[in-house]
Amino acid sequence: MRWQVNSDALVLGIETSCDETSAAVVRGGRQILSNVVATQDDLHAVFGGVVPEIASRRHTEVITLITDKALHQAQVSLAEIELLAVTHGPGLIGSLLVGVSAAKGYAAAMGTPLVGVNHLEAHVMSNFIAPPGQHPSAQQLFPTVCLLVSGGHTSLILMRQFGDYQSLGETRDDAAGEALDKAARLLELGYPGGPAIEQAAAQGDPQAVDLPRPRIKGSYDFSFAGLKTALARQVHKTHPETAQQVADLAASFQEAVVDTLVADLSAVIREHNAKQLIMAGGVAANQLLRRKLAEVAQPQGIPVAFPPLDLCTDNAAMVAAAGYLQAQRQGPSELDMDVFSSLPLSC
Ligand code: KG4
Ligand code: ZN
After folding, report:
1. Dihedrals phi, psi of 56, to nearest 5 degrees
2. pLDDT category of residue 42 using cuts at 50, 70 and 90
3. For the ranges 61-70, 94-103, 234-243, which has the lowest average pLDDT?
4. Average pLDDT estimate for 73-90
5. In this structure, how many other beta carbons lie within 10 angstroms of the beta carbon of residue 73?
6. Cβ distance 294 to 162 under 8 Å?
7. From the CA of 264, how far away is ligand 1's center (Å)?
8. Best of 283, 286, 311 to mutate for ligand 1, by most ligand atoms within 8 A of CB?
9. E strands, the chain, in order
10. Residue 190: which region, alpha, beta or left (left: phi > 0; alpha: psi -120 to 50)?
11. Whether the predicted model's global pTM rises above the 0.85 cut
């Protein structure tokens, strides 16, 4: 008999792939009843980046508290949960193991089916969920082109349907968020770097410093290492001291990253006759990137959608949504499922 998941099933999502511990209850794959996120930014800020051992230790300390809080906020008991969904890759192995072990524990104790979710698919799904009474930002229009931009990933994805993804371009070196984090460290703006660069850039002139817009000929792949080196050279040459000098460098760098990210979007939309343009991942919170994406979509006559700001960065509601659809497509995972530091979205 085919395994079935109810259309209004209550799904408990768990996310611990990097430095956010999150649990959420989502009804029917779309309706967010709760979405609790405990960030570890304060722990990692002094190091200027995520320290894996510290991340997994903190996940262990708070995972059950965060899960209880998500159930409590949704006014749902663990016994009412019909499906568990947990990120099992890509991510930091030690961090992933905490969420997956917790989910396996709940699954074994309650006899609830469990699905292992791809974190990248979960980010894409953040466009297709909303709290009760609100509409998701994206429509179910396919094919959709998705720019997935996070701290660990930069991908241009053709989404033909839920669960049907083709990678059109990937970063060859740093992810966009990683480049922003490293630039913020160079400019001594703090961690996480993306929001810090965006804030500093608001007072700066994006034309102040001439930085490259790296392109890879004959491919939709991205590369940010050269841009980062160009910024480092500027910093070492000019020794920026005043807030204005730093703001000008931040604005110029942000503009170069955003220009590089959107450069091929029009061509990709035309080539694949895309019906919608969406974005996902932490960097999708960036206002300049949102504006430039809208400028790309408008002349093509297609809608553009971004997740709400609180769903751009890592959260478990998107994991529950992806898990629900995955369970519908292929049933639950085995209880001995593994974790993966890298896990491609397209097969
Ligand atoms: O998706 P995410 O929470 O974690 C990963 O899966 O990697 O993305 C985190 C990344 C960080 O690099 C952070 O600096 C960046 O998203 N980010 C931003 C903004 N908010 C977060 N980048 C640019 N502008 C923002 N407002
Ligand atoms: Zn993420």
Report:
1. -70, -35
2. confident
3. 234-243
4. 98
5. 15
6. no
7. 21
8. 283
9. 10-15, 20-27, 31-39, 83-89, 114-118, 144-149, 154-161, 164-170, 276-280, 304-305
10. left
11. yes
